[in-house]
Amino acid sequence: MKQIEQNQKLGEIVAMLPKASEIFKNVQIDFCCGGHRTLEEAILEKGLNAEVLVKQLNEAYQIFIERAEGNIPSAATDVELIDFYIMPHHVFTKQILPEISELAGTILRVHGANHRELFTIHKLVRNLEADLEQHLIKEETILFPAIKEYASNPSEKTLKQVKEQIAETEDEHDTAGAILKELRAITDEYSVPEDGCETYDLTFELIQRLESDLFEHIHLENNILFKRFETAVV
Fold first, then answer.
1. Which residue, 2, 11, 72, 74, is CA-closest to 39?
2. Sequence ranges of the domains in the chain
3. Model confidence over 77-95: pLDDT tens digits?
4. Which end of the chain is more exposed for a tag (fewer CB within 10 A), N or C?
5. What share of the chain is helix, strand, coil (3-state, %, to 5)?
């Protein structure tokens, strides 16, 4: 049986073992925007125990193979990948972002005097909301239709449009990932202060849920869907 090794890219590992995403999240490894990096590079960056992490990944992979858990998204067609794997993430993002934005404003008003970092958190959340709202619209009205058009009627013109939009989209993914990293840093890994209220807790909990879902979303696009077009020719 194939083994997961340190010289493999993070995106490749999650593609072959979906549950690797959970393992990476637990040790704060960015597998979406950083999916092009090798596991070894990520381990060195985080100062992790390589032997322990690789063993954990391979044990999970063995169970995955033996029990045939789930379906690897890379087995789906481009259109299926968009409609059944990626679009649910779009729906979730649209639902949760306004709630996070409102909550961030609430805790700013209540706790901002004693926790000045909330002003930065509020600004970052609003920036993320604006960026992602535009990003999702661009994907749904330009990128995804172009990919579906290419799937049904391949042409050099459509392929060029797809590749141009992919480049823009990956840049936007990097921007969103950078904001999330900044949010995690300024909140000290989403640690709620002793005088924080239930709304404080809920705000940080929802941001983390968004982060987790967005990482899955970006991974599906960057490391699976978009990879298919790197060598595509008509």
1. 11
2. 10-67, 75-229
3. 999 999 988 999 999 999 9
4. N
5. 75, 0, 25
Residue type, 155: S
**Phi, then psi, of 19 in degrees rounded to 5:** -70, -10
* Total residue count of the chain as it appears in this document: 234
- Whole-model pTM: value is 0.82
- For residues 112 and 121, give the distance between their C-alpha atoms in angstroms, rounded to a whole number: 10
Between 2 and 147, the higher pLDDT residue: 147
Measure the N-to-C terminal CA separation of the chain; round to a whole number of Å. 35
Q: Give the Cα separation of 52 and 62 in Å (integer).
A: 15
Task: Mark 1-35 as b/e (b = at least 16 C-beta within 10 Å).
Answer: eeebebebbbbbbbbbbbebbebbbeeebbbbbbb
Tokens representing 124? 């970052």
Question: pLDDT of 122-152, one tens digit each?
Answer: 999 999 999 999 999 999 999 999 999 999 9
* SS3 category, 9: strand
Residue 106 class from Cβ within 10 Å (0-12 exposed, 13-18 middle, 19+ buried)?
Answer: middle
